[in-house]
């Protein structure tokens, strides 16, 4: 995939972090009317199917025999484990702590991309990623209260690892597959697994088909899943994976801010502190510096 212009890249990053940021409060409202696994499964499955229908004219780029393993592996890491473990893990730890642990992902992407993709690494980038993680911790500090189970912490860390591995894997294989079909198949296959798991462990009759739920499902299908993953993988495949990942530190900031406006949740000084740290993080990660490359 070719390089993006700076202006187009920044517009795509801005749209991505806004979409992912507003997703959390939208899903929080919708989840009052649906079992969590079924909601995660339906929005990913429908998102994948929608994208597949749009991509029918490009059907010859699927190359199923050559690429089915790529589609399956991406679906496992980026959908089944990422969304499935989130759903389970939030039952064991406070949401703020879970968010902090999941957003180890940009730090892990930086490490994995250096190890396996040979991407540049510098002291500034390492410091920047750590500062970004601390910024997420500051933003999420209000959600630390409550019971913390070791199992929940482990699940949150595995969630971050799976997302990071999925990101680096897609970057690694991007020359082998059509990126649009990759998103369609990872969501469809992963959505089938999650919906199946929800069918076994939850009840379809518990879904309340009202405006908040249907609106959340439509948003998740079209914007939260299909468009967001297309933007994310386009950005990752066109540049430095760790630099793109650093911008996702902004997602919890937007989520907390939107939640305060829509759901009446409080804005604290920690949000401002976190925003400053995350801004510094993005600057350091994306600043040019003398680098070390993995041999």
Tell me about this structure.
By secondary structure, this protein is mainly alpha-helical. The protein has one domain. Helix content is 75%, strand content 0%. It contains 12 helices and no strands. The protein is globular and about 45 Å long. Mean pLDDT is 86; it is low at 290-295.
Helix and strand pattern:
HHHHHHHHHHHH
Tertiary shape: globular
Average pLDDT: 86
Computed CA radius of gyration, to the nearest angstrom:
18 Å
Fraction in helix? over 70%
The overall number of domains is 1
Question: Termini separation (Å)?
Answer: 24 Å
Structural class: mainly alpha
Number of extended strands = 0
Strand content: under 5%
Oligomer: single chain
Number of helices: 12
Low-confidence stretches: 290-295
The biggest beta sheet is recorded as:
none
Name its key features.
mainly alpha; 295 residues; 75% helix; disordered C terminus
Outline the secondary-structure elements.
Blueprint: H1 6-30, H2 36-54, H3 64-89, H4 95-102, H5 105-117, H6 123-139, H7 150-173, H8 179-201, H9 211-238, H10 241-247, H11 250-262, H12 269-286
Helix pairs in contact: 1-9, 1-11, 2-3, 2-8, 2-9, 3-7, 3-8, 4-6, 4-7, 5-7, 5-10, 6-12, 8-9, 9-10, 10-12, 11-12
């Amino acid at each position: 995939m070719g390089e993006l212009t700076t202006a187009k890249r920044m517009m795509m990053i801005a749209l991505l972090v806004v979409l992912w940021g507003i997703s959390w409060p939208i899903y929080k409202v919708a989840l009052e009317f649906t079992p969590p696994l079924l909601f995660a499964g339906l929005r990913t499955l429908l998102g994948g199917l929608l994208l597949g229908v749009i991509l029918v004219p490009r059907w010859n780029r699927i190359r199923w025999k050559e690429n089915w393993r790529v589609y399956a592996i991406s679906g496992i890491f980026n959908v089944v484990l990422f969304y499935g473990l989130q759903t389970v893990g939030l039952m064991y730890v406070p949401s703020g702590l879970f968010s902090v642990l999941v957003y180890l992902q940009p730090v892990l992407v930086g490490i994995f991309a250096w190890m396996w993709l040979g991407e540049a690494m510098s002291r500034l980038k390492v410091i920047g990623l750590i500062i970004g993680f601390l910024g997420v911790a500051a933003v999420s500090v209000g959600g630390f209260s409550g019971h913390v189970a070791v199992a929940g912490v482990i699940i949150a860390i595995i969630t971050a690892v799976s997302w990071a591995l999925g990101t680096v894997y897609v970057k690694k294989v991007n020359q082998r597959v059509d990126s649009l079909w990759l998103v369609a198949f990872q969501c469809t296959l992963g959505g089938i697994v999650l919906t199946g798991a929800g069918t076994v462990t939850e009840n379809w009759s518990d879904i309340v088909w009202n405006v908040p739920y249907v609106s959340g499902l439509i948003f998740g299908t079209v914007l939260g899943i299909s468009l967001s993953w297309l933007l994310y993988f386009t950005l990752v495949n066109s540049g430095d994976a760790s630099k793109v990942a650093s911008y996702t530190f902004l997602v919890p900031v937007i989520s907390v801010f939107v939640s305060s406006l829509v759901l009446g949740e409080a804005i604290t000084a920690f949000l401002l502190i976190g925003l400053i740290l995350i801004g510094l993080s993005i600057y350091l990660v994306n600043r040019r510096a003398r680098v070390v490359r993995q041999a």
